[in-house]
Known about the structure:
single chain; alpha+beta; GMP Synthetase, Chain A, domain 3; 4-stranded mixed beta sheet; 6 helices
Amino acid sequence: MRKIAVLVLVLLFLSGTATGCFREQVAPVEETVETIEVFYGDQSGEKLVSEEREIRYGKGDDKYQLALEELIRGPEDETLTAPISRDTKVYGTIVQHKDIIVNVSQEFTRFPGSAPEIIGVASLVNTLTRFEEIDRVKILVEGEELLNPAGFPYGFMDPFPPDPGKTEDLEVLLYFSDAEATDLVTESRVIQVHPGAGPEGIAFKVLEELILGPENPDYKRTIPPEAGVRFLTVEDGICHVDFSEEMHTRHWGGAAGEAFTIRSLIYTLTELEFVDKIKVTVEGSPLSIEHVYLLDPVGREDLPSP
């Protein structure tokens, strides 16, 4: 019995010594404490209001994910509104230079309407762009780009104004055909643009107005009114517009009619500062009304003569 007791004591001593040695070799974990701002809707759910929070993170932790998880917990002020579902999960973030991409779960899209959606998106964007090193934010939902109410990707978003639900007037220039189909003529329109519309949303609104046709009775439309926009993207100055089959089947044809369709599209969309060239497809195939086959993106300098 004594030998067993001595052996136990020796083992305990060695164990304690080893543990002590181990503790001496482990470096203390460095932790950063940072005060951040998270954004919520005001009592009316129309404007953004910030709250200060503290996040703690060590080496290798994703501080942006921690900030978003703090945001998703909801406001401490009970008079504020939480636009993002508390069931939302943040899968992670990727930083590219001064841009950040955030991947969240499907619960993020549980908005009761377009106005709460705008506040929800704005609250996430403004929370992340409060970090000095972040300028723009792109949101993915289950790995796919979040779509705005018009059905187009939000893309990379700049910080939103304090009242993101307020639309802004944007004056745009539309190009139509004159009565004799000899030249392009212009009409000015004022469209309502939401701060979260992004390049795709703005270009889509402009196309809607172009498809509606001219207000001046002496001008002629250049796109069949039955034609719909299936999708639209803007990337690196190239606006890719894909129309429904009616762009071909309901078009009036003719060399002049075809040329004015192409010219009005390109001149109208390149009035937007973020568009240099246009790629036009119909149901995924290059535009081919009658005489011209548009395979590559086209700018004003590439246009055929009317």
